[in-house]
Write a structure and sequence with these properties.
This protein is an alpha+beta fold. It has 15 helices and 16 strands. 38% of the residues lie in helices and 21% in strands. An 8-stranded mixed beta sheet has the order 1-5-6-11-10-9-7-8. A 5-stranded mixed beta sheet has the order 13-12-14-15-16, with helices on both faces. Helix 5 runs parallel beside helix 9. The chain starts with 14 loop residues before the first helix and ends with a helix. It binds one RNA strand through helix 3, strand 6, strand 10, strand 11 and helix 11.
RNA sequence: GCGGGCGUCGCCAAGUGGUUAAGGCAGCGGCUUGUGGCGCCGCUAUUCGGGGGUUCGAAUCCCCUCGCUCGCCCCA
């Protein structure tokens, strides 16, 4: 292929699509604002260490999916594979966490070197939130409800909320030891991937899809039974609050999530219309992360929505590009300049005006006016220049009779013109 | 990273070894340089993702490569 093309897994978002993106972004921004969130923007590029230390050396993301390279100063840099680590870093770096609880949101591209497929790209977009210093299980539920309501208000039904508790890090350590011990006796029965995971990241065995491993898991120790009292009370409190908000959920004891920093509440919002990439939104609590990155112990919770997956679900439910209010037909030396001036005035009054720049025949320009779906055609030619008029004509009226409306286009009449066009 | 399917114009496609690669939509030009929508006419792929091979002859068969897609892994 001689033609230059985008890198694998890097996708252009074309004008036809950006309309939908903007609409979604607008709704998200409004809702997050209503919930007291403030936007934070962090660099796309960070020191590699940030991700390996927060996400975990043994995770797939860090192990094989990062875009990592050395810059000219020989620093190891990585294109962010997710948002949380950067937000924590920025919050620490600028002392945000010393100023009380923080509700932050972010959006933008993330990068993971994976094999692309439906709902998965190498550059993809997330919109996410991170809260700091909010401890109560009710905060978990508030945060979940914000994601749930956002998706709901975009018209998505048919979603499922899956919930689990990973307990405190002590709980998890105890459980991990038990699990490793239990599986070591049954090592030969495990699938190859899970044998590998037994070394690196034993909890990951829980969401193995291998049938044999799955049936083994039915008898294996269950994480829930290793939660200390405090942890399981917390888990129950989360469930109670969800019920109070009447948000339906399903407990999934095998929901582990691939990033090491999660603790206690972990959740995913999934759709069955997404093939094997079912998760539209994933998140959870990460109480140890801030400390792990050098801050003082601060609780954290957040989620991220995958924009591309959201777009798949939205499909073509929202209409395409909007057509202009006015298509401005103009022809002749002086007329074209007058049209330029008038178009600018109309735009200043928030009219969507498409100015024909071709100087082609009136018939031709009318044809374009019609095709672009404009509500009105406005005409300015030599005749209009001499009389100081413009003509407007309602398009798509299906009447053959001429509907030319004539009037003066002096500055004083601009309001009258606008009133007619807005009709 | 591993396995399956696919790749003909901007889009949807016919064609499965034999003279100039259908058709539809969109686009452009004309009939109509002061009036669009309808109609009619014309134009738009020296070439079938790219490269190599087999053959008198390849979009059609073989190999390699790139891309897309689906599944696995994992995640948003």
């Amino acid at each position: 292929m001689n033609q230059l093309q985008s890198l694998r897994g890097m996708v252009d978002i074309l004008p036809e699509q950006t309309q939908l993106w903007q609409a979604v972004e607008l709704v998200a921004r409004e809702q997050l604002q209503c919930a007291g969130f403030k936007e934070i923007r962090t660099p796309l590029l960070e020191v590699t260490d940030l991700f390996s230390r927060s996400i975990g050396e043994q995770t797939d993301v860090v192990g094989k999916e990062m875009y990592t390279f050395s810059d000219r100063g020989d620093r190891s840099c990585t294109l962010r594979p997710e948002g949380t680590a950067s937000v924590v870093r920025a919050a620490l770096e600028h002392g945000l966490l010393k100023q009380g609880p923080q509700r932050l949101w972010y959006g933008g591209p993330m990068f993971r070197y994976e094999r692309p497929q439906a709902g998965r790209q190498r550059q993809f977009h997330q919109i996410g939130v991170e809260c700091f210093g909010m401890n109560s299980p009710r905060c978990d539920v508030e945060v979940i409800s914000i994601a749930w309501d956002l998706l709901d208000s975009l018209g998505l039904n048919d979603l499922a909320l899956e919930l689990n508790s990973l307990g405190s890090s002590e709980d998890r350590n105890r459980y991990r030891n038990k699990l490793v011990e239990w599986f070591q006796d049954r090592y030969e029965e495990l699938d190859v991937d899970s044998q590998q995971r037994l070394q690196n990241n034993p909890l990951r065995i829980l969401d193995s899809k291998d049938p044999k491993t799955q049936s083994l898991l039915r008898e294996a120790p269950v994480l829930e039974e290793y939660l200390c009292n405090e942890s399981s009370e917390r888990f129950l409190a989360v469930q109670d609050s969800l019920k109070a908000l009447q948000i339906p959920f399903k407990i999934n004891p095998r929901l582990v999530r691939g990033l090491d920093y999660y603790s206690h509440t972990a959740f995913e919002i999934t759709s069955k219309h997404l093939g094997s990439q079912a998760t539209v939104c994933g998140g959870g609590r990460y109480d140890g992360l801030v400390e792990q990155l050098g801050g003082s112990a601060t609780s954290g919770i957040g989620w991220a929505i995958g924009m591309e997956r959201l777009m798949i679900l939205l499909g073509d439910s929202i209409s395409g590009p909007t057509s202009p209010d006015v298509y401005f037909i103009n022809r002749g030396e002086e007329a074209q300049i007058k049209a330029l001036v008038l178009a600018r005035k109309l735009r200043a009054a928030s009219m969507k005006v498409e100015l024909d720049g071709s100087g082609a025949s009136f018939a031709k320009q009318f044809k374009r006016a019609d095709r672009c779906g404009a509500a009105w055609a406005m005409v300015l030619g030599d005749d209009e220049v001499s009389t100081g008029q413009v003509r407007i004509k309602k398009l798509h009226s299906h009447k053959d009779s001429s509907e030319k409306i004539e009037f003066l286009a002096s500055a004083n009449d601009l309001d009258r013109l606008l009133a007619l066009l807005r009709d």
